């Protein structure tokens, strides 16, 4: 079983930056992904990374603005978010990848509780 804990969320003005952290414990946590969910919307893939190979994957919301990085020794994955926009406002979740499509929430079997990001314009 894998336990995940997110941190680093908060309120920021448009154009600002935040860095989210996800610390994972337990077995089977090689690839970790970030998703976000805004009220009334579906959960959306943001980015993922393999802690073994450092290979990243990015979803449309992240391209050009967010960077994912992993620290295997600390079992921690970071999501650096720059040039934040009001549409980035959502609850951000990290999850442990089980297999299948990397962008699909159903491909992840363990999830953290999430951390709220609010961007004001």
Would you give an account of this structure?
By secondary structure, the chain is mostly beta strands. Helices cover 0% and strands 55% of the residues. The chain is built from no helices and eleven strands. Strands 2, 4, 5, 6, 9, 10 and 11 form a seven-stranded mixed β-sheet that branches. A four-stranded antiparallel β-sheet has the order 1-3-8-7, with no helix packed on it. Strand 4 and strand 5 (44-50) form a beta hairpin. The radius of gyration is 13 Å and the shape is globular. The mean pLDDT is 95.
Structural class: mainly beta
Which of globular, elongated, flat, extended, rod-shaped describes the shape?
Answer: globular
The H/E string reads EEEEEEEEEEE
**β-sheet strand percentage:** over 45%
**Total DSSP helices:** 0
End-to-end C-alpha gap: 40 Å
Number of β-strand runs: 11
Enumerate the spans where pLDDT stays under 50 for 5 or more consecutive residues.
Answer: none
Question: Helix fraction?
Answer: under 10%
Largest sheet: 7 strands, mixed
What is the alpha-carbon Rg in Å?
13 Å
Q: What is the typical, i.e. mean, pLDDT?
A: 95
Which helices and strands occur, and which strands form pairs?
Elements: E1 2-7, E2 10-13, E3 18-26, E4 31-37, E5 44-50, E6 56-58, E7 66-71, E8 76-81, E9 90-97, E10 108-111, E11 115-120
Parallel strand pairs: 2-11
Antiparallel strand pairs: 1-3, 3-8, 4-5, 4-9, 5-6, 7-8, 9-10, 9-11
List keywords for this structure.
121 residues; mainly beta; 7-stranded mixed β-sheet; 4-stranded antiparallel β-sheet; 55% strand; globular
């Amino acid at each position: 079983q894998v336990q995940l804990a997110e941190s680093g969320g908060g309120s920021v003005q448009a154009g600002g930056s935040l860095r989210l952290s996800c610390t994972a414990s337990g077995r089977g946590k090689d690839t970790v992904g970030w998703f976000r969910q805004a009220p009334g919307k579906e959960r959306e893939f943001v980015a993922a990374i393999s802690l073994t190979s450092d290979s990243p994957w990015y979803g449309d919301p992240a391209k050009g603005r967010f960077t994912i990085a992993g620290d295997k020794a600390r079992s921690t994955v970071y999501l650096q978010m720059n040039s934040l926009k009001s549409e980035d406002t959502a609850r951000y979740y990290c999850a442990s990848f089980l297999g299948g499509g990397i962008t699909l929430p159903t491909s992840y079997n363990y999830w953290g509780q999430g951390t709220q990001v609010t961007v004001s314009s």
